[in-house]
Predict the structure.
Amino acid sequence: MLVFLSTLLLGVIGKMNVYMVPHSHNDAGWLETAEWYYENKVQYTLDNMLDLLDIRDDVKFVWAEIYYLARYLSDFPNRKAQVIEFNKQGRFEIVGGGWVQHDEATVDFEMAIRQTEAGFEYISRELGINNVKIGWQLDPFGHSSLTAALFDKMGLEVLVFSRIEDSYRLQLQNSSNMEFIWKPQGLGSKKGVFTHVLNDHYYSPGFLTQLPWETQCYGELPANETGVLNCIQAVEEFVYETSYKYKTNHQLMLIGADFYFTDRNFTFQFMDLLARVSAQSTNMNIKIATASEYFDAVLASETSFEVFGGDLLPLVSPGYKGQTSYWWKPWTGFYSNKPHIKQVMYDTQKLARVAEIVKTGWRNEKIMAYELDMCTHHDAITGTMREPVYYDYLQRLENDQQMLLNQLGLDINSIMTKQSSSNSQLMVPYKVLFIINPLNWPVQKTLSFEASSEFVRIFDTTNQTIPSQTVPYLNNYKAYFVYTLQGLEIRTLFVSEYANQCSDCSTISQKNTNQVIGNQYITIGLDNGLLTSLKTQKNEFFIAGKIVRYDTYMSGCYTFVETEPAEIICTLEEFYHYTGPVVEVAESYFSHGKDTFIQRIIVDKISDNFIMTFYVYAERNDDIFYRFYQIYDRTGWFYTFNTANLQKRYFDFNTLNKTGHNYYPITGGLVVDLDKEFMYIMPTFALGAGMPFENVFELGLHRHPSYDDGLGVDYYSGDIFPVEHHWMIGFSSLDYNSIWSRFLEYRSSPIVFFNTLNDSLTLNFTLAAEYTSTPEYQPNYIFLNNFDCAYLSSLVSRNGSYVFRVLNKCDHQIKVDFKNEYHEINAGGLPLTEYKAFDESGKLELNTYNNSWKNVMEYPHSSETDGIRPYELKTYMVHATGVMSKDIMTEKINKGEDSAVMTVLALASVVGVMVAVGALIKYRKGKKFNEEKGLKGEFLEN
Ligand SMILES: *[C@@H]1O[C@H](CO)[C@@H](O)[C@H](O)[C@H]1NC(C)=O
Ligand SMILES: *[C@@H]1O[C@H](CO)[C@@H](O)[C@H](O)[C@H]1NC(C)=O
Ligand SMILES: *[C@@H]1O[C@H](CO)[C@@H](O)[C@H](O)[C@H]1NC(C)=O
Ligand SMILES: *[C@@H]1O[C@H](CO)[C@@H](O)[C@H](O)[C@H]1NC(C)=O
Ligand SMILES: *[C@@H]1O[C@H](CO)[C@@H](O)[C@H](O)[C@H]1NC(C)=O
């Protein structure tokens, strides 16, 4: 029937054009380390294909992972000229072009940009390639609307992938929508990306593989004439059977698999076969092509495509044949799998961003965190690899952290050290502490560091004491103090430790066991050490916290399959409540088997939110969650923020007892509607959160699946690392300005560093150098003037110019201007490209578990084209030399002209939501800061 229909269709639209695109998918580590793959596989693939490109004009090849290409060209620099030449000839195409193929569920927009920019920078610098058109995300485990938004901003016209929720795939196939325009709004994405879902996986069709269970059309290689004719027929049949899924008379056929074309004889003989198939085909026009040749033809075909605006996470794929749908595999376990690497990744990203800003602003030099880039790979940050590979990634990240601390230390010491003028004079030994505000607007924050004494004195360069409070912390103490910083300011402070109480030393906390903790803005009630109520100035919310575990008999490092309902675990062993002038801390020690989990709730005096930390480790067969029971009975109360879009996720009764299906990655944050206010939870690193029941949500803390889930890793994969989650929890309104502000406030909170003897930095107080002579440091240094709306997402140095990436976090249009000559570039750091608008035909709705794009919270519309639209990300290259001037960038706000209104599209509860938004508390206006000090107006008091 399908064949018949297709034949009819072909009669109408004409002869089919088949584009065989040779590729190799090269994981930067998975079952083996990246280095092993390079040595044993990848270098041969590149050798073989470059030799073939050299001797045969009819061969073409596409390449995605720049990490491997850079590695190869550093070993074989004589190959560079060939790569450049074949690229110019349109026969060797860079697709994707990132350092690796990053995971989409666990990285935020800045990590995704970083790794893509690293690849783009390499190909531009070394190969003169300044344009990548095709996004190539063949393997990641589900696709985020963040990717589509970002790729649009990076000048990628097309996105190609294979893994999509199975029911979506069926719907797309049956409606000929396997190609659509993906147009999320986040980051100011406007045009969207033309999205191609691969027919099946990213492998060659079965008859063109070498897989033993398939029948090869060519028989044996080298193929004889019969083999060639068989293959032509097989291709034609394949196209007849599959072309109905796509709209045009062009068909893409990827030729390759993981680490393909490594065997020289196979590669030569197989490519010869493809060339003969191409030369001898008559019914169809079959050719060896690059990806661009195919997409150029499709986009020139005057066909219109439907538009999708939602998210494609989670990924649910069928289990093994013969099993009921219950055993379908939700690829949601990796959202919280091996949480330690996720934490290290986000810590390193925060350091890298700051180190780049400092290096660029002070020296106009480039700094690259390539190991961080590598670990955005979809088998690294995801935790879906074998154990030795895991340790390899952790070692790489540690190397990057050390490199960043060294570089930053050298720069900061060079900025902050004064020429010694006075005679050195012996002092009480002190350590040098630098604080950096990574945000380019003023903040007032409660900061802390771990000290070994209860008595510390914190003082500044004028010997003024900064009041502080120490709280017992494990075998040490944490010293807390409040500090105000200008945007992108570095401050110098000093710390002395004393054995006994001193006049200006920290206040020692009072200890009690009262399970109510709070400040004038928020009161937190605990029961058995766990959350039970939250009270704001207006409302009290009952929200019971429990720690639960699932068995992992059916789960693995990729998947989370619930086999039995979760069981409530943990007994409270010890509880302490510390009070003092700076913070209150509630510390709960829980036991679970032989493990101890530690929850801390930290409330300072100045914030309308609080910090919750949870230290946890999962034993084998434990999948551990922090569960919240909310009593507010409403549908559509759970929102996830992926740093591009806020999307409402519904509980669906079809997912009862299948929690793994109703489970989402939280890269930016989680917002839950508690009837009168919206509670947000902003994590410092990505994790998963789901709804097991209608009024219950839970966050994945740690997991240790017992077995392999049959998706490739093949072994039980251990994890010896505990993790400590850090969440900022509070209440806000449901609008992008509040959510972005809260997210940035916490993700980019000030960092406290200590100096070491060799002018490096450390985050560990114990490792800090101790000095005894008079300190010779500048009190502070400021890189940029303060901004209201323009968040400086990154500042990097490229070819002696500065690249400013700016996100407008306000709901009105702004303009930024630069003192020096500048021009706009794309978010990936390459020149802007203008593509023809896509031909759109109506909206594409995908409905599974109700997570369609109707549930995406809409960004304000703006008619203006000049400047930066609300929540838009723009990138500028600014020509400059030497030390950056503070006023190089300025911001102009067009208030009122286009005061756009947030709307929630087509929600059944739209009225309810709008009323709730209207009734929300307004942010309290904070203290008015001193205008003379250069602070602009008012800002939020936390
Ligand atoms: C062509 O090769 C296949 C094996 O690949 C073999 O079975 C067949 O006999 C060959 N045909 C001719 C005509 O040589
Ligand atoms: C590859 O081909 C060469 C030349 O045809 C031959 O000598 C060699 O044995 C082949 N190698 C393999 C592994 O088949
Ligand atoms: C700095 O302040 C401390 C405490 O107030 C004081 O004991 C010390 O003498 C001062 N040091 C100098 C160099 O003034
Ligand atoms: C889900 O689990 C609960 C608790 O074990 C059980 O009572 C209920 O019948 C299950 N529901 C479905 C649809 O399987
Ligand atoms: C800080 O360094 C000391 C000494 O190397 C070490 O014992 C301690 O565990 C470190 N603390 C942290 C939080 O890493």
